[in-house]
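for the writeup, i need someone to sanity check this before i put it in the appendix. the sequnce is what the collaborator sent (i think, or maybe the updated version? ugh). structure was predicted straight from it, no edits. if anything looks off just tell me and ill rerun, i have time this weekend
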Amino acid sequence: MKYKYELSIVIVSWNTRDLLERCLQSVYKFNLDLKFEIFVIDNQSADESLLMLETKFINHPEQYPNLHIIANNFNAGFARANNQGIRQTRGRHILLLNPDTEILRSGDLKKCVEYLDNYSEVGVLGCQLLNADKTLQSSVRSFPSFVASALVLLKVHNIFPRLEPIKKYYALDFDYKKEQVVDQVMGAFFMISRSALDKVGEMDEKYWIWFEEVDYCQQCLKKGLKTIYWPEIAILHLQGQSFKQVLSLSSQKRMNKSMRRYFRKFQPTLSYLFLLPLMPMSLFLSWLVQILEKNNFKIKAKKKLA
């Protein structure tokens, strides 16, 4: 089958206007050698993101061609919004790209397309992610086990990060200089081959946020496809900018719901059942952290006023 574009890029945005602008500019600046299209799905942003897109991009099609905007009148979440874009793609491969990322070098996306063209057994391709100061960012994890997930729910990983189950889950000893087959890569840069999309399908929309990329990597593995971390490519990722706007307790509720979905699909029933009682405790701990953080902020504010 012939595709109109070499690559289709799908970006889901929620109140990330300035970051989104920089992301789009970087894509167009560094990929003149690539035939691509972009779908931006806006999840009811309240920061004039749509106005920025119209005035700075849509009104200048000669400079920013093949850019499509899908404006939701509600927050559809990550998986569902990505699927809105994926269904309309006409590219040979699909890149799910966070709005808080920036392409740094010319030709990098072209290289990724060629990589997927050359290795048909690869379903998902991830790259090296860099922090704002260009230091390396952790972006690879193992599939979550029951023990590791239980420890994360109870916030033990914040106190004892080197415990073996936690170390394994967060891949703390991972060599980010080496190309490797991995369990999962972070969804900030998540390139899906068209063959994976044909075999696995779209993202599971029962995940509103979190675990949808883990799920997709699991589905690829079940279909005999690999997830690859490829350090030849590096992009900037200002991690978690959208969800810094969500309170920790609210975030924990979302994460718990996604974790339940993941464990019901991929883990033994007993693991799922044993995990359930820990989730109320995780909510209590998140609430406690939230209260402590607020009080600490008030104390600091009073000291400044004094």
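The domain at 1-139+176-240 is CATH 3.90.550.10 (Spore Coat Polysaccharide Biosynthesis Protein SpsA; Chain A). The longest strand covers residues 226-237.
thx in advance!!
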